[in-house]
């Protein structure tokens, strides 16, 4: 297995491995080490079945189940509970209607985010498999949150070091004007807390833990918090920190949600885009949660 850095050095292309075969201990260790060094790994020509993708994911850690990630009801699911359906299809394989609320909700993926940052234990890795790609558009962009942190001025680093943010799907969707949540969804998507600056336990490197799911900073007036978060996000997503991935069918990309943000770009939704994600769960919360009274 070879790792070839591409783009701006936090992305590597991996060659010499077939992910349809079980990952042995050596391959697993090499991938973990490369994830810490880079943060995004690209594997071309991996025509995986769902079961093969799930097996590769389990080899890398505990799999995160897709139970509270969106507004798609369990009886509307197209894929198993281990998979996140990042497509524009319904359970029958038909394109979602323009005004379908599931589609409206999924448009939130066009905002910069870190997967499952709205959970108390946010995601470690995401593995996204391209099964059907549109003829144009639909790129995924990645931003390196370590480089973004490193290039902050010392005053800003000191000011944000101990800040705690509040994350919820209600906040990210609210930015696009999607607010018609049911009472049950509002309860399911109640905000969780995370540190704004987090440290990779293996490498010791710090990163900005930003996400469009953030709606506030604990102890701060909301407009002041959102102004700072907008400023930091603008800094962190400058072109020198961003890699654009143009998908080919059967690409698999693995990214570290603790050290990067990502977003999908627009595409013609009269074409099918069938992407399937599995997720390696995080190890622990970044901060203790406050129990609701
Ligand atoms: Fe995502």
Task: Describe the protein in words.
The chain is globular and about 50 Å long. The longest helix is centred in the C-terminal third of the chain and has 15 residues, at 222-236. The model has no long low-confidence stretch (mean pLDDT 96). The chain has eight helices and 15 strands. The chain is 24% helix and 25% strand. By secondary structure, it is an alpha+beta fold. The protein has helices at residues 25-37, 50-60, 101-106, 145-150, 154-160, 169-175, 183-188, 222-236; strands spanning 2-6, 11-15, 40-43, 84-87, 123-132, 140-144, 164-167, 192-195, 197-199, 206-208, 214-217, 242-245, 252-256, 260-264, 274-281. Strands 1-2-3-13-5-15-4 form a seven-stranded mixed β-sheet, covered by helices on one side. A three-stranded antiparallel β-sheet has the order 12-6-14. The site of fe (ii) ion (FE2) has 4 residues, from loops.
């Amino acid at each position: 297995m070879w790792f070839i850095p591409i783009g701006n050095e936090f992305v590597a292309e991996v060659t010499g491995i077939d992910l349809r075969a079980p990952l042995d201990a050596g391959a697993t260790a090499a991938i973990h080490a490369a994830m810490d060094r880079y943060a995004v790994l690209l594997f071309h020509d991996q025509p995986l079945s769902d079961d093969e993708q799930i097996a590769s994911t389990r080899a890398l850690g505990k799999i995160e189940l897709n139970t509270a990630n969106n507004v798609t009801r369990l009886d509307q699911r197209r894929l198993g509970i281990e998979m996140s359906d990042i497509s524009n299809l319904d359970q029958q394989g038909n394109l979602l209607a323009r005004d379908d609320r599931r589609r409206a909700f999924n448009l939130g993926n066009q905002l910069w985010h870190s997967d499952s940052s709205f959970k108390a234990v946010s995601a470690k890795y995401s593995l996204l498999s391209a099964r059907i790609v549109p003829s144009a558009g639909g790129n995924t962009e990645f931003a390196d949150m370590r480089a973004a942190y490193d290039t902050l001025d010392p005053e800003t680093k000191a000011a944000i070091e101990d800040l705690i943010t509040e994350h919820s799907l209600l906040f990210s969707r609210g930015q696009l004007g999607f607010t018609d949540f049911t009472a049950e969804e509002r309860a399911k998507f109640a905000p969780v807390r995370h540190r704004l600056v987090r440290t990779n336990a293996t490498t010791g490197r710090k990163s900005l833990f930003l996400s469009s799911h953030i709606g506030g900073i604990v102890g701060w007036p909301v407009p002041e918090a959102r102004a700072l978060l907008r400023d930091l996000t603008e800094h962190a997503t400058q072109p020198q920190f961003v890699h654009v991935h143009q998908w080919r069918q059967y690409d698999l990309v693995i990214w570290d949600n603790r050290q990067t943000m990502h977003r999908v770009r627009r595409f013609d939704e009269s074409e099918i885009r069938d992407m399937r994600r599995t997720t390696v769960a995080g190890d622990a919360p970044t901060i203790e949660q406050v129990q609701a009274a």
